[in-house]
Amino acid sequence: MSAIRFEGVSHRFDGELVVDDVSLELTERRIGIVGANGSGKSTLARMINGLVTPTSGTVTVDGLDVARHGREVRRRVGFVFTNADTQIVMPTVREDVAFTLRRHRLDAATATARVDAVLDRFGLAELADRPAHRLSGGQKQLLALAAVLVGEPAIVVADEPTTLLDARNARRIAEHFATLDEQLVVVSHQLELLESFDRVIVMEAGRIVADDAPEPALDAYRALIG
Amino acid sequence: MIGVYHPGSSVLHRMPALAKLALLAATVTATALVGSLPALGIVAAATLGLFALARIPVRVAWRQVSPILWVLAFAVPVQWIFAGWEAAATMGVRLVLAVALAAVYTMTTQVSATLDAMQVLLRPFARWIDPDRVGLALALAIRCVPLLADLVREVLEARKARGAEGSLTALAVPVIVRTLRTADHLGEALMARGVDD
Hints:
The structure holds 2 protein chains of 2 kinds.
Chain A (H helix, E strand, L loop, with lengths): L3 E10 L2 E11 L3 E6 L5 H9 L6 E6 L2 E2 L4 H7 E4 L12 H9 L6 H14 L15 H13 L5 E5 L7 H13 L3 E5 L3 H4 L4 E6 L2 E6 L1 H12 L1
Parallel strand pairs in A: 3-8, 3-9, 6-7, 7-8
Antiparallel strand pairs in A: 1-2, 1-4, 4-5, 9-10
Helix pairs in contact in A: 3-4, 3-5, 5-6
Chain B lengths: L10 H4 L2 H17 L3 H17 L4 H8 L1 H17 L1 H24 L2 H12 L8 H31 L7 H24 L5
């Protein structure tokens, strides 16, 4: 597994301390992050991909400083957003998945084979030539995940990937998460999604208030929110 | 180009985008230069042949070409009044043919193929223009049309639900704010996918 390390990490946004002196090492396969709105959990997740850089402290992925080696880090870390609509760049399903591979400079045959394989894996092969914006919410989130995985990242970070989905589609996404070989970091309010994870981190006001196996960590979170 | 690609394996689907773009430019230019209605009739027959060759259903083809008829409903009578019926008919047929030929192109060519073709065309100017960036800008422009259409629809529904149907402020302010926020999210997603690297 890759090693994600936060060392004395703080982040200020508009003068407000969003993440407050966090030190962590994430080496487990499945890691969940929970917390109330504004607790800093999404900011923490964004730092792993370099979307947000710390105001102080360092974040490293496999020893690479995210602030200095953003390009290499983003090749290793894929990011799935809450709203898949804003993650889709190209007009059709196949083109959007293939878009990820443009920066990989693969030959056409290899790229096509990888795109076809990932579309097949996520049940999107029959929708390959459909306009991406006409997919259902669940299909769009699957497309977002497929578009990330086609780049073969070592780590997948997902920021509330099931928040906008109905229960059925949320379950489908959770089932796909369960099959991933990649290291997975998921920010979620849906606690049942994290019950089978290896480690759960609870955040409150930018700080880590619990960091444990899912059961005790989620109990601590439930106690926190009353 | 927004989701009008009609999947298929015809000769036209398989033809390189660059060759199709060149043919489209040549045919539309020739149509603009042809002055006689009989000659335009031949081009029209050939265009119908292209739709058949690409195996595009009449209903799908009609959906692409029909919007131009609204423009013609105003333009043709005006032309008739000022330049006579023959000039009006010629202009109308030329416009329909140009739209129909462009529709054949868009329905048989994926956007990514068009972007690749644009990048090839821009390569000689790579010293001054980054072809990848131009390609990405075009792709985003195409992608943003349905995204913004959805956004406006949602704001219109919200405005209606709040009983403010006539208020321009209740439409413009949320549309602008949400458009800027969507642009931020899209930028963040592009960065996450390594576009700015």
